[in-house]
Specification:
By secondary structure, the chain is an alpha/beta fold. The protein contains 15 helices and five strands. Helix 3 (about 60-70) links the parallel strand 3 (about 50) and strand 4 (about 75-80). It comes from Dethiosulfatarculus sandiegensis.
Length: about 350
């Protein structure tokens, strides 16, 4: 049964409304003041409150504010002797569902009550639908994210299968780049994006011959020229995918240097986006600290010394400082395990 609370300081009005609404099949309770109504609301759920405006103590507007704040699914109708457009507008601005002017007829009250309850049902249904939709969207988003993460892992592993000597390199670069980006104050979303770029930054090496990737000695000029194509190839592979941030551009620029000595485009300074500047530093640190076919690992200390030496010429000074701080302060075990 629908519960309605009638709030009015006039006994005759309360009695009339209770009788009228009870005959329509509603269950009614009465309150002679806003304070009494608030106490009743604490102990019982109501679908609708019919309230006067002018009453001793707090007004119907105070009650409307209280109900909207604490009982959002309880509808409100104001029945008042104030026949003033400004008062009616104020009531409607508070979110009441109806404004009936005294003296009113039974039909006016019945119609207002039915309209308010119907509107309440529609709003509850809309709210339930919205919550259900949000839940489904969240589930689909999570499922899609898992699919994307799986795809990223597969793409990253494709390079490792061709070049087992650098297995795990992209993952470690991504993890380090995420930490550096966080140290620099980038948002969580941007941190995750840079991590993805790290996982995929060498994807273009799928176009390089395995013999070159795994060659135990130094590369000759022709071989190195082929290796230098991998940022462009990676960019071309990823550019056809509609990401909401510059993943392909980050991969393209991760071997660029501030002084223009990098590749493939020889970009300088601010021509290189921040994401690529972060990735380039982390790529060098991981590569130098790890074993390669053509040399043993150089160690973490030498890697940090190298980026510090090249700070401001090859590498962004802020990124270098952040990377050194992140590594020195620790906080992720795989650094120590991998790099001693």
């Amino acid at each position: 049964m629908t519960n309605i609370l009638v709030v009015d300081d006039e006994t005759e009005i309360r009695a009339f409304l209770e009788l009228l609404l009870t005959r329509q099949g509603f269950a009614c309770s009465q309150a002679a003041s806003v304070g009494e109504a608030m106490e009743i609301l604490k102990n019982m759920e109501f679908e609708l409150v019919v309230t006067d405006i002018r009453m001793p103590g707090e007004s119907g507007f105070d009650l409307a504010n209280h109900v909207k704040k604490n009982y959002p699914f309880t509808s409100i109708i104001m029945a008042s002797g104030l026949d003033q457009p400004s008062v009616a507008r104020q009531a409607l601005d508070l979110g009441v569902y109806g404004y009936v002017i005294k003296p009113f007829t039974p039909n006016q009250i019945i119609i207002a009550v039915q309209n308010a309850l119907r509107r309440r049902e529609l709003e509850i249904s809309a709210n339930d639908y919205r919550k259900n939709l949000e839940h489904k969207v969240a589930e689909r988003t999570l499922s899609l994210q898992k699919t994307i993460n799986g795809t990223i892992r597969i793409l990253s592993q494709m390079v490792e299968l061709r070049d087992p000597y650098t297995a795990g390199h992209q993952k470690r670069v991504g993890e380090l780049a995420k930490e550096v980006a966080g140290f620099m104050g980038l948002s969580e979303k941007n941190r995750e994006n840079i991590k993805i770029a790290g996982f995929l930054h060498d994807i273009g090496k799928v176009a390089c011959p395995v013999e070159i990737l795994t060659k135990p000695g130094r590369l000759n000029e022709i071989e190195f020229a082929m290796i230098k194509q991998h940022p462009q190839v990676g960019h071309d592979l990823l550019n056809s995918v509609d990401f909401d941030w510059p993943l392909a551009k980050t991969v393209l620029m991760h071997h660029e240097r501030l002084d223009g000595s990098g590749y493939p485009q020889g970009l300088k300074a601010d021509e290189i986006i921040l994401e690529a500047r972060i990735l380039s530093v982390c790529d060098v640190v991981e590569a130098m600290a790890s074993h390669r076919p053509y040399r043993p690992k150089l160690g973490l200390k030498k890697a940090l010394a190298e980026i510090k030496k090249r700070s401001g010429t090859w590498f962004d000074e802020d990124v270098v400082e952040a990377c050194i701080r992140v590594v020195e302060e620790g906080g992720f075990d795989w650094l120590e395990e991998k790099w001693d």
